[in-house]
Design a protein that fits this description.
By secondary structure, the chain is an alpha/beta fold. It has one domain: Rossmann fold. It contains four helices and five strands; from the N terminus they run βαβαβαβαβ. Helix 3 runs parallel beside helix 4.
Amino acid sequence: MFRKIILAHEGSPAGERALLYVEHLARSDSAEVIVAHVFDVPARYLATDAYSELHAGFEKASWEVVDDAVQELQKAGASARGEVREGAAAQGILEIAETESASLIVLGTRGPSSAAELLLGSTSTEVLRYARCPVLVVP
């Protein structure tokens, strides 16, 4: 049923729970999983001397989250690879899903900084609103 699954993983507990669902779906459907993480360095630090160091730290942490999830999926027998992008989370997730012709996007309900929405985080709400494929939101 699902050929290619995007797991939007930001390192939160909800992302870890979503990983369990993706693992099961990927193995049962023999789907490929792209573990995606989109980071955004706060623009207020752009003029500082430490910006490039801060950017590198964000990128490194993003790859650690992605690589850990990819390894866990591969250990479970799923086909998985990672992708890290910089930018707005929802837009980046949607772009990856479009580029990859995803058949499903899976993400947690609330990331570490989502406080804008009552039940769902602002990222999951935007992905639900604009995705061109089914979206599974894991609480």
